[in-house]
Sequence to fold (122 residues):
Amino acid sequence: QLVESGGGLVQAGGSLRLSCAASGHFAMWTALAWFRQAPSKEREFVAASTVTGISLPLADSVKDRFTISRDNAKNIVTLYLHMNSLRPEDTAVYYCAAGERLATDSHEYDYWGQGTQVTVSS
Fold:
C-alpha cells in the first residue's frame, strides 16, 4: 500500500516534510511520485524518483523550494518531499503515486495514496 503522512497547517514561509511509505509489492514499483491538487484545479506533478535514486526535475513552481529524498528498506520504500518557504499557493492535497516508469503525466501511475492535506496560511 501507499501511505502518505506529514501534511498539516503551516504559515507562509514555513516548512513541512511529507512521507510516502510504499510497502509490500508497492515497494517494487520503479517510480514513486508526488502530485498535488488544489481546489478547482487539475492534478499537478511535483516530483518523482526511481528506487535507484534517479529523479525527474521538480516542477518549476517548486524547484527552488522543495526537494525529495528516498529511503530504501527491505520491504518499505519511503519517498520524502521536503517543502520549504511554503506559500499559500502550495495549498493542496498532496498525493503519492506508484508506477512502472518515471513520468510527469499522472496517467502513467497505476496506484495512488489517499492524499494528505497541506494548507499554507498567509
In short: The two ends are 34 Å apart (CA to CA). The beta strands are 2-5, 8-11, 16-23, 31-37, 44-50, 66-72, 76-83, 92-99, 109-112, 116-121. Residues 97 and 112 are 4 Å apart (CA to CA).
